[in-house]
Amino acid sequence: MGMEKYFVHTTSYVDEGAKIGQGTKIWHFSHILSGALVGSNCTLGQNVCISGDVIIGNNVKIQNNVSVYDGVCIEDDVFLGPSCVLTNVTNPRAEISRKNLYEKTLIKRGSTIGANATIVCGVTIGRYAFVAAGAVVTGDVPDYTMVQGVPARQTGWISRHGHKLEKKDSNKFYICPESGLKYREIAEKRLICVDIEENQSLSKNMKTGKMDYKYYKKLKKV
Ligand SMILES: CC(C)(COP(=O)(O)OP(=O)(O)OC[C@H]1O[C@@H](n2cnc3c(N)ncnc32)[C@H](O)[C@@H]1OP(=O)(O)O)[C@@H](O)C(=O)NCCC(=O)NCCS
Prior knowledge:
Layout: E1 7-8, E2 13-14, E3 19-20, E4 25-26, E5 31-32, E6 37-38, E7 43-44, E8 49-50, E9 55-56, E10 61-62, E11 67-68, E12 72-74, E13 79-80, E14 85-86, E15 105-107, E16 112-113, E17 118-119, E18 124-125, E19 130-131, E20 136-137, E21 145-148, E22 153-158, E23 164-165, E24 174-175, E25 182-187, E26 190-193, H1 213-221
Parallel strand pairs: 1-4, 2-5, 3-6, 4-7, 5-8, 6-9, 7-10, 8-11, 9-12, 10-13, 12-15, 13-16, 14-17, 15-18, 16-19, 17-20, 19-21
Antiparallel strand pairs: 21-22, 22-23, 24-25, 25-26
Bound molecules: coenzyme A.
The site of coenzyme A has 9 residues, from loops.
């Protein structure tokens, strides 16, 4: 397991052959199976299970009661809300073995899966996309897209800082009320940030929340 420094609570198991990055914390009653790759500075809450054929990037936050099954790949800065559900077979049957047929799910950089949401396998969740609490995702979700409901449908665009982008200014930019970053729709179902490239990290001062969600929601209405 190398010389990396990470924390594992005494009630959890990290199997031989799992790789965990520096600064990662694994809290109570969790299990990381052999072969799993978990990046640095991640937090895995209570009762988290990571299967062996799973790759998890850096700074990923996994809340309590989440199982990440074989075939799931999670990029940097992803947030998995409490008790969200990932899957790897669309048509599971106990009688039929489909161990070599796991369907791939890709959860891209900076996206959020809300509490208790379910991701039906074989989909890609785009960068900085946001799956609302309790949604059931059955198809791909583009970058910066907010989806809600069962089945999950797009209800708008959302900024990298997690605010709905509702009104365009006179230059056709959406502006995030928290960060001031500008966004532009460059095609149908395609939003980009004009100021910071999607794969670029935010500066340190842009990484700390300042006011709560309701404050910015009110601000948008002014
Ligand atoms: C989606 C979310 C970001 C709120 O977005 P919002 O647009 O500000 O929500 P609002 O409260 O203005 O609601 C807008 C509408 O969507 C509905 N709505 C809100 N959240 C919803 C959800 N998760 N699923 C379905 N509908 C939802 C509201 O009832 C409202 O409907 P209405 O217009 O018919 O009254 C939030 O509800 C959510 O799901 N956050 C995730 C929280 C979470 O899982 N955190 C995990 C870490 S603790």
